[in-house]
Amino acid sequence: MKKRLSITLTLLVFMFVVSFSMPALNARVAPPPEVVKAAVEGLDVFTDMDSGNEVHLGLGFQVNTVDPRSLIEEPGLTLEGMIYPLEMWRFLVFENGAPTALLTVAREGEAWKAVSFGGADLAAEIQTIQNAWPADSGFDLRFIRIYQARADFMLVGKGLETLGYAPLPAAKVALSLQSFNLDASTLLHESEIMGPLQGLVKEALSVKDERGALDN
């Protein structure tokens, strides 16, 4: 097991070092080798590598978010302009060629560690969006999680142009988009999601402030 893991790790670190010059799911940043190492070790912990199934990692992408106060208090900013990266990466996990989970790696103190595994539906949707907007055609994808709104998006761009936002399952529920039958090629303009997001975030912060007042 350790020998196989060592060989796998060596190959994957090489692949990810090379990927610094290739488009990735988050084209502006590729995961550093220490993040890849934690992901490979986590894959061995979370999956049964001896099951006979072919299990491997896809390229990793950094988790981005926005400051909730900026979202509701700075109307002059664009949503893209508010985005900043977290010390958290997610990797698509493939089993027999199909995306079956997401492996999350986060910084804990000075070390990187695989902290969670799951999200089959989200993994499949991300892969579908990636297929609709392929990197080899020049498209850039960034993953955005707005925690207070419980909404995830893929921001799709090409070159210096932002093309729009692809809502992921949680965002479709949060924004009541389930009935619109949106496919992976459908992108929403910022103007279509900003108002609903601000409302959800404002409500979440209001509840938090009320709870804080009650605790004091």
How would you describe this protein?
The chain is of the alpha+beta class and 216 residues long. It has one domain (2-215). Helix content is 40%, strand content 30%. It has helices at residues 2-18, 33-46, 68-73, 79-82, 120-132, 169-174, 190-215, and strands spanning 55-65, 84-95, 98-108, 111-118, 139-146, 151-158, 161-167. A seven-stranded mixed sheet has the order 4-3-2-1-5-6-7. A hairpin with a 2-residue loop joins β3 (98-108) and β4 (111-118). α1 packs antiparallel against α2 (33-46). The longest helix has 26 residues, at 190-215. The termini are far apart.
Helicity level: 25-40%
* Total number of domains: 1
Helix and strand content put the structural class at alpha+beta
Mean pLDDT: 85
Computed CA radius of gyration, to the nearest angstrom: 18 Å
- Show unreliable segments: 2-11, 13-24
Query: What is the tally of helical segments?
Result: 7
Q: Kindly report the spatial arrangement of strands forming the biggest sheet.
A: 4-3-2-1-5-6-7
Features:
216 residues, alpha+beta, seven-stranded mixed β-sheet, 7 helices, 7 strands, 40% helix, globular, disordered N terminus
Secondary-structure map with pairings?
Blueprint: H1 2-18, H2 33-46, E1 55-65, H3 68-73, H4 79-82, E2 84-95, E3 98-108, E4 111-118, H5 120-132, E5 139-146, E6 151-158, E7 161-167, H6 169-174, H7 190-215
Parallel strand pairs: 1-5
Antiparallel strand pairs: 1-2, 2-3, 3-4, 5-6, 6-7
